[in-house]
Each structure stands twice: as C-alpha cells, then as structure tokens.
Amino acid sequence: MTSTLTKASIPTRRAFSDRMVEYGKKDESFAVFEADIGYSTYTYLFGEAYPKRYFNCGIAEQNMVASAAGMAANGRTVIASTYGVFLSMRALESIRSFICYPNLNVKFLSSHGGLTAAIDGVTHQATEDIGIISTLPNMKILCPADPASATKLFDVAMETPGPVFTRLMRDPLFEVYDNNTEFKMGGSHLLKEGENVTIVCYGDTVFQALEAAETLKTKGISADVLDMYSVKPFDKEALLKSAEKTGAVLVAENHQRQNGLGYAVSNFLLKNKPVKFENIGLDNTFGESGDYYKVIDKYGFSARCIDDAVVKLLGK
User: Rounded to the nearest 10 degrees, what angle do helices 205-217 and 303-314 cross at?
Assistant: First the structure.
C-alpha cells in the first residue's frame, strides 16, 4: 500500500531544520545548540544563516544541555540538537534538573528515533527514548511522520511553553500530509476509518499501519488508523472515541514495548474503556544493524507484523 503514497524527498530531521532556518527570521532571539553532528541533523543550515546564534558544543551532550538551560533561564527560547540516544541517556540529568524542573523553553531536536537509524546499529538506535523522556514532569513529546508534519510540529514545539522533545527519523520515507494540515499539542489525526480495530501509531509506524490496514481489508477487517503524533500528552478524546467504536486497540511503535506509548494507552483504556488490547514493538531486546525494512520486520512492527497482531487480537 505504501507504493500508493508519495516518496518523501527529505527526512523529517531535514524538514525540521529547514523550518528552523525560516523561523529564525520570525524570532530573532532564539538560539540553537548542537553536539557536533550538525551536518547530520542539518542544524548547520541555521548556523550558516545565523552564526551568532549557533553554538556547536562538541561531543559533550550534557554540557550542551546545561548551556542551553543557562540561555533559556535568561528568557530566550533555545533548541538543543543531537541523536535521541545521546539526549535521552547522556544528557538526561541535565534535561531533568536544569530544564524540566524549572520548566524552561528548551526544544529538543532528537534525531534517529527507534530503528529508523537501522544501518547505524544499536549505539545510534534510540529504542528507549520515549520511555525515558516521557517520565520527566513538564516534558512534552512530538513524533512527526513526514516532512509536512515535521515542519508544522516545529512551530507547535516553539509555541508551546516549556520543554518539548521532537523525535525525528534518519531517512526519508513517505508523505501522508499536505502543507495545509493543522497540528496541535495533544492532537492526533485519523488517517483511515474502520469498524473492527483501532491501530494507534506514530512516526514511521504510520506507514506500516496504513499498509497493514489495506491487507486487513482483504480479510474482512476494517481499521481506524490513528496517527498519535503527540505522544505526550496524547489525544485521549480521539482514542476513546475510536475504542468505543471498534472495541479493540493495537499500538504499534518503533520503541521498546515496555514503557512506550502502548503502556500509557493501555493504562488509560483500563481505567476508562476496557477493550481488547495489544501493543507491539521491540520485545525487551536490542536491535541490530541492517536494512530498515528487514530490521523492523525482524523486531516485530512491520506491516506484516501489525496484520498478524490484529488477527490474533480479534481472535481473542
């Protein structure tokens, strides 16, 4: 089914940074801090346009975050940028104590989310980042699926008070949104409507869910596909509406099954609308280096895996 979608020309990390440059003209006070991978995250584009507002802190993520906090404490909005594994682990204490605790306006460009960093291997695959970052009070998390949503969610992040963590992908995949689609903190988009199951997804799993929905249709199963691009806070109203209609929810995410969005959704449903439920993702394991599509299939959240999981869920 993904063959019917337009191939994306740039990755979400590039779209986010392109908008960063544009936004630099609108807000002349905000600055960008980078941890020596600006040519990968594309923040170097901001540095070329506004060299006095761009700070490469070297391979020192904790110091980068602390420096960003210092500037934000002086009333400025700041972006801190690097790979998700380094933000969520190396810099965690600084994010918690210096940014989330005082609720500062630091926005995080977090690239290489999940196994989208497939060929880069385990050291660069952020498969625990949402579980770690979502526990921090005051933190919000956004996960765009394509360039248009990454562009729009840049603005959402910048205009939302306090820290915002935006999870971006290594490679371009597909386009599902146009430039007129609106996004908001705590929002979602229903990309496909069905009656039998709700497939909750975000980021790259959006495309796997859409493909699975097409194959499920041939088996007489129709699915709601809900892009939960705002992971924290997530759209409880949309989730509840869909769950009440379908009576079954499957969360598919490029993350460890434990402590991801699936855990937050299951907790909410247990308290508010008990339904048939399953969540799929990495099952207490690290990934490995390899072709993206082969890797996500091996670790359990490709379109084929979503199809199989839905059939098993509805058979319970």
Answer: 60
pLDDT at 3: 55
For 20, residues 6+ apart whose C-beta sits below 8 A from its C-beta are 32, 43, 45, 46, 79, 109, 154
Query: What local confidence, expressed as pLDDT, does residue 2 receive?
Result: 56
Q: Check for a shared fold between 2-175 and 189-314.
A: yes
This prediction has a pTM of: 0.96
Burial 43-67 (b: 16+ CB within 10 A, else e): bbbbbeebeebbbbbeeebbebbbb
CA distances from 107 to 20, 91, 181 (A): 11, 14, 22
What stretches in the chain show pLDDT beneath 50? 1
91, two tokens: 């810099």
pLDDT of the residue at 296: 98
* Extended beta strands in 134-239, E state: 140-142, 164-167, 174-175, 189-192, 197-201, 223-227, 230-232
CATH number of the structural domain 2-175 = 3.40.50.970
Question: What's the gap between Cα 305 and its chain centre?
Answer: 20
Indicate the domain borders of the chain. Answer: 2-175, 189-314
| 144/230 Cα distance (integer angstroms) | 8
Tokens of 240: 């509840």
Would you identify the CATH topology of the domain 189-314? Rossmann fold (3.40.50)
Question: Which pair of structure tokens corresponds to residue 296?
Answer: 């996500």
Q: Residue 197 has what pLDDT?
A: 98
With beta carbons less than 8 A apart as the criterion, state whether 174 and 5 touch.
Answer: yes
Tell me the helices (H) and strands (E) count for the chain, helix number first: 13, 14
β-pairing verdict for 276-282 and 230-232: unpaired
Rounded to an integer, what distance in angstroms lies between the CA atom of residue 173 and that of residue 156?
22
